[in-house]
Amino acid sequence: MTVVDAPQALSATTEEVSAPTSTAAPRPHGRGRRLLGWLFVIVLLIGIALLSLRFAVTAPDLSGSLNPENPGPPGAKALAELVRDQGVEVTTTRTRAATVDALDDGATLVMADPFTLTDEGALALIDRADRTVLLSSSARMLRLLDLGEDAPGDAGVVEAECTLSEFARVGTIEAQRMFLPAASVDGCFRTESGAAAVLRGSAGDRTITLVEGTHLLSNDALAENGNAALGLALLAQGEPIVWYVPSFADSDITGEQPGTLAELTPEWVTPVIITLLLAGLAAIGWRGRRFGPLVAESLPVTVRASETMQGRARLTARAADAAHAGAAIREGTLTRLAARLALSPRASAAEVADAASDRLRVPRTALYDLLGGPTPATDHELVELARRLSELETAVDDAVRTERNRP
Q: Which of 23, 201, 360, 376 is a plausible cystine mate for 382, CB 3.0–4.6 Å?
């Protein structure tokens, strides 16, 4: 609100009396600025859409799980440091070529499920190592290595209970996944049904050990139960370790690259999109709302009570809220009856019902239900409630008027 001093107001009043006033609104300014604002919003939305599309088609990086260099909760840096403390050399590799070069005689290959490699690539890498430890499992690796199959429903706290000496002092672990070992495969940490949490298979001089350690051997859960002892039993056997971290950059999976969005759409799509954008900008400039000059208005503005009442009534009718309307009608009736019966404006429904019952000589129970009963659920019940409340007010008015007129 603009404050104008008294001399200026008096001068303005004199000019209005002496000269005719023009009713034409001044031409709005800043239209070009508004168009630039709309253009900036459209460009920003297009940029956000393109950026979201880029993130949506980008392959996620899953190398952080059981990564010996990842100190986060899903990583395995804590386990790698424990193994190094036992005097075992740990070498981290991220490519198959570097892994093959690092696999000297007697070295142990350690890796999570090689999800980025084909069956041939995974088997070729495992065949180069005399001892392989798979820290996470998959149905594909169980099938390729012929170690067994999944045993759903048997996961839980288990003890070693096997013939492999390195697991004798591990204690208990809370397995997340159990397996049914194949005929020639040793199983450790068994349940009563024969399912095992750790599988150990052999092919000639080569041994393959598999465990679902995504949670057991992670940094977040290594200190629980016998998880750390299990990790040392798997890895700290004296041989140097080559820890291969699978990644999409080292994948040998080949196939046809999917076409880009520009290649999959017809040539006419891009010109049509640009034309529609230009048409939208032109429509904004042509039909956009043009704000006129500010209009001074005296405050505060007085609104009649009947207008607010009618407005609330229309909103309630539009919402079809019979319960709310019934509560409002009942509240108004209680207020008016309390005034007519000489009660406090804050009198409860029971107090008003008692006073009205004394005046009308009617049972209190009926008035209790009428003034404090459940709210109506339908329009028919709302109309019936309003009729009965109106009849009650008329009866109380007549009774009070009769008492006043008695000599």
A: 376
